[in-house]
Design a protein that fits this description.
The complex is a heterodimer of chains A (about 250) and B (about 425).
Chain A (H helix, E strand, L loop, with lengths): L14 E12 L2 E12 L3 E5 L6 H8 L7 E6 L2 E2 L4 H7 E4 L11 H12 L3 H15 L14 H13 L5 E5 L7 H16 L3 E6 L2 H7 L2 E6 L2 E6 L1 H8 L4 H10 L1
Parallel strand pairs in A: 3-8, 3-9, 6-7, 7-8
Antiparallel strand pairs in A: 1-2, 1-4, 4-5, 9-10
Chain B lengths: L1 H14 L2 H29 L2 E7 L4 H12 L2 E7 L14 E5 L3 H6 L7 E4 L6 H4 L4 H21 L5 H5 L8 E3 L2 E3 L3 H39 L3 H6 L4 H35 L6 H9 L6 H26 L5 H7 L1 H16 L7 H9 L2 H12 L3 H27 L2 H4 L10
Parallel strand pairs in B: 1-2, 1-3
Antiparallel strand pairs in B: 3-4, 5-6
Helix pairs in contact in B: 1-10, 2-10, 8-10, 8-12, 8-13, 8-14, 8-16, 10-12, 12-16, 12-17, 14-16, 16-17
The chains are: A alpha/beta (about 250), B alpha/beta (about 425).
């Protein structure tokens, strides 16, 4: 069932995220040009597009970091612009290029971040325990983050982003910098997260990964959302063998 | 509050690392060592200084002269009827004094006689240049001794002291309308050391605090942690405050360490010249001792100065891309500190031309540096006004910082040409 905003009801569940006519301008340049979509509870929705298409800007606006120039974003009934503190309690965000505090150990970093999401000691410990299991860094969890490889840091950050089982997890290129095995593992974790009711909004360049992972995708080209739908449906619609072909056809059109 | 505490502890942990602690400890150790070296040097200067006396006169008068020089804290190596020594072979001697033939004869007749003196300057440090007055002060002592002897001989019923210094200076110092019988030079030397000490400490603390908070901001950007931090459920005001507070705490602790070090250097340096009991009493009598209330006042104005510096540094830090750029970003703050710092040290700010005063009084830190001199003259109104102005500046810069943190600009601002990035 296609709505007038290009979104589709997912399994008939409530919409966790609704983006309406979202615009972001930097001076003269328009990075995001009136895009609309919505994501239902437990759904994995991916924004796909080339570099500079406006994916990260859109995710940043949803994550309360950038202010939209126009349009609205509502997360579980809260407007991102006017109710940012309430929204931040519901979301977690993993930026594409992100790091952690190098002087802290992996465990201390997780404890620090968990302490910002809860004031309850038992819950904090539970978050850290869950994150350590996800990150799976073994003894290195007590070593300084400054000594971690890029892949280890990314796993730690991803674990941090999902340890609180947020209402909406916003993951910008979650597997960036990870090898094939680690990427597969992360995909499994994201799937499991969605099965537990967390809504996942992610972005990626990796069409193959997106095809296996996402329930629905949105194709962004030059700040405009050109197509929204499940991968299989989009492939059928454009007579394409894979998402890359779909993307090429949409971009050239 | 608990979440704020979590953030504050993280900020502290980032600031307190071996890389930041070791230099501070080293600097304090250097200060302590420096104090000992200075103390040893000034002790060495007070020891009898070696000189060579070439006595070509060989009279009882010249023997008296040698005796007088010996009693004047000089170690004399005596050479009789000799040519001038080879100066390049004199390693430790500070001077060569030649008593020419006929010297005693001229003096005995009641006339004037001439000594040839050669002061040897082998080093040009401040400490070594202090030796330049050695010979002239010895000759002055010699003159006084000869004159005393001559007066006693020619006018036995006259006191030589009254002839040599007939006018006695009964010194008084007036400050704030109060009078005390004390040497103004003694009090002046003491107070200027006090007044010069505080700005040095202030300068260190403020520069340190400013640099720390700007670096903390740059760190968040360079390590790509800022974006994550901005998305967590904690207010932007808490993020700003935690950074400022942590920098304030570490800078204050650093200041305590440095003040201790500087104080030790000063104590070792001035140890022999400490204030006499009478001068101390006179300072109290003149009201030139700061009361506990004045110290509290000073503390408040100092604290406000640090807060202004932190707020400015936070705004400047928002422009930083990385830690390297902090150095150039912090320059405007350094200039704002350096101008009133130097003005306080080398000029009398209240008597400067109006244009200079206006410029100085626009800079909030002027009030911090000027607080101590103003408290000495009980100008509490100006100190309070300065405190109020600093508070206003702090509020303005905090508002700017809060606005930056609440907007996109905290992520998009950059130093180079103030460009905005996507």
């Amino acid at each position: 069932m296609q709505s007038n905003t290009g979104a589709m009801e997912y399994h008939g569940f409530m919409q966790v995220l609704t983006v309406t006519n979202l615009v972001k301008r930097y001076g003269e340049a328009e990075a995001v040009r009136g895009i609309s979509f919505s994501v239902a509870e437990g759904e994995i929705f991916a924004l796909v597009g080339p570099n500079g298409a406006g994916k990260s800007t859109t995710l940043r606006m949803i994550a309360t970091i950038l202010r939209p120039t126009a349009g609205s974003i509502v997360i579980a009934g809260h407007n991102v612009t006017t109710e940012a503190p309430e929204v931040r309690e519901l979301i977690t965000y993993l930026p594409e290029e992100s790091g952690a505090y190098k002087v802290l150990s992996g465990r201390d970093y997780l404890r620090f971040m968990a302490g910002l999401y809860t004031t309850d000691a038992a819950e904090r410990a539970k978050f850290v325990q869950r994150a350590e299991a996800i990150a799976d860094l073994g003894d290195k969890i007590t070593a300084r983050i400054g000594t971690y490889s890029k892949g280890m840091t990314r796993k730690l950050l991803l674990a941090r982003a999902i340890m609180t089982e947020p209402k909406l997890a916003i993951l910008d290129e979650p597997t960036s910098g990870l090898d094939v095995l680690n990427s597969l593992e992360i995909r499994k974790i994201i799937n499991g997260l969605a099965e537990h009711g967390t809504t996942v909004l992610l972005s990626s360049h990796n069409m193959l990964e997106i095809e296996y992972l996402s329930h629905r995708i949105g194709l962004i080209v030059q700040g405009e959302l050109k197509e929204v739908g499940p991968p299989a449906e989009l492939k059928r619609k454009h007579g394409a063998r894979n998402l890359e072909e779909v993307f090429m056809k949409v971009a050239q059109a | 509050m608990k979440r704020f505490w979590v953030l504050f502890v993280k900020e502290l942990r980032e600031l307190i690392t071996p890389q930041t602690i070791i230099p501070i400890v080293l600097i304090v150790l250097v200060f302590l060592g420096l104090g000992k070296v200075i103390a040893q040097q000034s002790k060495a200067q007070n020891k009898p200084q070696p000189v060579v006396v070439v006595d070509n006169d060989d009279s009882s008068t010249s023997a008296d002269v040698v005796q007088e020089l010996r009693s004047d804290n000089l170690t004399v190596t005596l050479e009789q009827h000799a040519a001038l020594p080879d100066f390049s072979k004199l390693a430790n001697e500070k001077a060569v004094i030649v008593i020419p033939a006929g010297f005693g004869h001229d003096l005995t007749l009641g006339g004037a006689a001439t000594l040839q003196t050669y002061t040897i300057q082998n080093g040009f440090s401040i400490a070594r240049l202090a030796d330049t007055g050695l010979v002239s002060s010895a000759v002055a002592q010699l003159n006084a001794a000869v004159a005393t002897e001559r007066i006693a001989r020619l006018a036995p019923h006259t006191s030589p002291a009254q002839v040599l210094a007939p006018v006695h200076n009964d010194e008084h110092l007036v400050a704030g309308g109060k009078v005390a019988a004390v040497s103004p030079a003694d009090v002046g030397a003491y107070l200027s050391s006090q007044i010069a000490f505080v700005p040095v400490v202030l300068f260190i603390v403020i520069v340190f605090a400013g640099q720390m908070v700007a670096t903390a901001m740059a760190n968040e950007k360079e390590n790509k942690t800022l974006e994550t931090l901005l998305s967590v459920p904690i207010s932007r005001a808490s993020i700003v405050t935690a950074k400022m507070l942590a920098a304030g705490v570490v800078a204050s602790a650093t200041a305590v360490a440095y003040v201790y070090g500087i104080h030790k250097v000063q104590a070792d340096f001035t140890g022999s010249q400490s204030l006499s009991a009478s001068a101390r009493a006179a300072i109290g009598q003149l009201g030139l001792n700061l009361s506990p209330g004045s110290y509290v006042f000073l503390g408040v104005v100092l604290f406000l100065g640090i807060l202004v510096a932190l707020a400015i540094a936070l705004v400047l830090g928002a422009f930083a891309d990385n830690i390297k750029s902090v150095q150039s970003l912090i320059m405007p703050l350094m200039m704002l500190l350096l101008i009133p710092y130097l003005a306080t040290l080398v000029t009398d700010v209240p008597s400067l031309p109006t244009a200079f005063k206006v410029v100085l009084y626009i800079i909030p830190f002027t009030y911090t540096f000027q607080a101590m001199p103003n408290l000495y003259v009980h100008n509490y109104g100006l100190v309070a006004l300065g405190g109020a102005y600093e508070l206003l500046c702090f509020i303005v810069f905090m508002a700017i910082a809060a606005k930056l943190f609440a907007s996109d600009q905290i992520l998009t601002l950059r130093l180079r040409g103030l460009r905005f990035r996507r």
